[in-house]
Amino acid sequence: MAETSTTNSKDQVATEVRTDLENQRREADKQIRPEVETQRKEAQQRAEKTLDREAVAAIQQTERAVNALSENRPDEALAAIEQATGKINILLSRNPSTALIPVNLSVAVIDMAPWKIEDISVLKSTAETALEFDELPAARAALDALRSEIRVRTYNLPLATYPTALQDAARLIDEKKTREASNLLLIALNTLAVVDQVIPLPLLATRRYLHEAQERAQKDKDAAERLLDTADHELERTIELGYTSRDEVYKALRDEIRDLRKQLKGNKDMTSVFAGLKEKLTSLIRRRSEKQERSDAQNQPQKAA
Asked: What is the pLDDT of residues 222-233, one digit of tens each?
């Protein structure tokens, strides 16, 4: 009976700890939402500055050519292609070594990933099993459920292939093959190169929890310790969700957070330690957000910007 009582007591304590951490997470989530929105706006503004007016105009003229062909106005289509080709030539002269020119973008906050590490592991195993059996739709669904990010997606005009498509379309129009020309232009419009950049939400959460812990450190050390536990958990989520390789930088950062938790028990001023950790996280967020992941032959939004 004594052993059973001890076991029940341990289970109760574990349950209370999990409940407390969950409540702590919900409260901190409320605090991080404004920061996520700020980061989203800043990411969108940065991306918008990269859009090239000449490239956007080339896309718009290509769309005009497609519309003209659909209404049996080949002369107008040729004029639009000529305008688009002129814009492309300007781009080629300005950017002789650049393969991709941004013409459109989308920014989205995607937060579907589980909070518990074990649930993340289950989804990863599900995706791996689905891939082994070549069940790609199931694998995609599982991988999509592992997203927790601000995603900046830019649609880029490929300078290596787009000019050729325009030239071939003009030739087909001259040969009275307007349907083939229209199809070729549509393919060109719908095979812009896609480049993604992501800001992991768990990294933003880690920094926010550190900030909250610093504010609580002097008045409520227990609350500060719990917030540091949650910060460590979010950093682990960042790794488990695949937003970073399992390198020494992240492992060392987790060790520093744990050491800080231990140091809170003393009376030492931890301001500089907190500041250093937050600075490192800010650097990691910036580095990760600058990383580009390219995927060609994906559809762009309906209209160019």
From this structure: 999 999 999 999
Q: Is the pTM of this model over 0.90?
A: no
For 168-184, what is each residue's pLDDT tens digit?
A: 999 999 999 999 999 99
142 and 210 both lie in a single domain? no
Classify residue 172: in a domain, yes or no: no
Distance from the first to the final alpha carbon of the chain = 72
The verdict on residue 174 lying in a domain is: no
pLDDT tens, position by position, 143-159 = 999 999 999 999 999 98
Distance CA 128, CA 216 (A): 42
Confidence check: pLDDT of 64 > 90: yes
Domain that holds residue 228: 2-47+200-290
- Give the total number of structural domains in the chain: 2
Residue 283 covered by a domain: yes
Contacts of 157 (CB under 8 A, 6+ apart): 52, 55, 58, 59, 91, 100, 101, 102, 103, 192, 193
